[in-house]
Amino acid sequence: MNVALVIYYLIRSVLESLFLFIKHWYFDTWLSGLVFLDWVDKKWGRVAYYFSGLIFLLVYLIWAALPIYLLAKGIRDYANFV
Amino acid sequence: MQILFKDPKIEMGIFGRFIVRLFSYVTYGALASMAVVLVFAELVWMEPLGWLIVLFLIDKLIHINSGRKSLVKDWGEGRINLVDYLSPACLALLEKMIDRATFLGNDLAIAFLKEALDSGEATSFIKDKIFLKKTEKRVAEYLSSHTKGRVKSTEEVKKVLEKWVYEAALAARSEGAVYIESKDLFLKIKLGVEDASAGKFLNELGII
Are B51 and A10 in contact (CB < 8 Å)? Predict the structure, then answer.
C-alpha cells in the first residue's frame, strides 16, 4: 500500500470538499441567478428583469453572508465563552 | 486531444482504497453526528458551527451524484482525464472492478457485471427483472467455477479501462449525458472482455 498516496488523496479530498462547498454556495448560485434573470428578461421584459435583479441581489447578499455569519458568530461566542 | 485515465484512488491498490473508503464513511458519519450535537447543544457558541456543518452536508447531499467535470460543459481539446467525467456511482463501481481484477483475477467485464448487480446499478441497464435475476444467478455460477483467474496488474487493467471508458464517454456524449454512467459502460462491455471464456459466457447470456 502506498501510504504517501493515500495520505495525499485524503488531504486532497478534504480540500476539494471545502473548495466545492464554496464554489456551489457562491459561484454556482450566482450563475444560476444570472440564468434566471436572463429568462425573466426574455419572458417579461426589462422592467421585470431589473425588479427581479434587485430582489435577487438582496437575496444573494443574505445567502452569501450566511456561512460567514455562522462562522463569525461561533468564533465570537466561543471567545466570549472562554 | 490527450486522453488520460488517472486517479490516485486507482493507483493506490486495494488496501489503500479500503482505507480511503473507511475514512470517508467515518468522517461523514462523525460530521453528521457533530452537526446534530452542536445544533442542539446548550452552549451558545456551538449552535452556529453546527448549522454551518449542516449547510456543508446539505450541499454534499445535493451534489452526491455529480462528477468532477461535465461531458457537456467541460469536454474539449487538450488533456482529458476520463476519471473526472465518471459519476460517483460509476467510479465506485470501477474501483471495485479493479479490486476484483487485481486481487481475484476476474475478467473486467464479468467484474463489472458482478459489481453492478451487487450494488443495484445493473437496474439502470437491465430493465427486465426476470433477465436481471437470471444474469445474477449465471454470473455467480460463472465466478464460482472460474476462481483461478490470472491476477492482473493495475497497469494492465488501466489500459483496458482507458479504451472502455473512452468509448463509453463518447456514447454518453452522443446522448447528451452529463456524466459517464454504468449504463454507458454496459453499452461498450465488449471492450472489457479479456478472457475467451468470459467472452463466450457473455455471448451465451446474450449480452454481447
Answer: no
- CB–CB contact B59 A20 (8 Å): yes
Say what the pLDDT of residue A81 is. 80
According to the model, what pLDDT value does residue B10 have? Answer: 87
- Which cell numbers hold the place of A54? 434587485
**How far from B187 is each of A16, B10, B126, B168, CA to CA, in Å?**
31, 22, 11, 7
Which B positions 35-54 lie with beta carbon below 8 A of chain A? 43-49, 51-52
Beta bridge partners of B86: B180
Using the structure block, give the residue that is written with the C-alpha cell 445544533: B39
Residue B68 DSSP one-character state = S
Q: Work out the minimum CA distance from B15 to partner chain A, whole angstroms.
A: 6
B164 neighbors B185 (Cβ within 8 angstroms): yes
Task: Give ipTM to 2 decimals.
Answer: 0.86
pLDDT of B7-24, one tens digit each?
Answer: 998 888 888 999 999 999
Given a cut of 90, whether residue B116 has pLDDT beyond it is yes
Nearest-CA neighbor of B121 among B151, B169, B86? B86
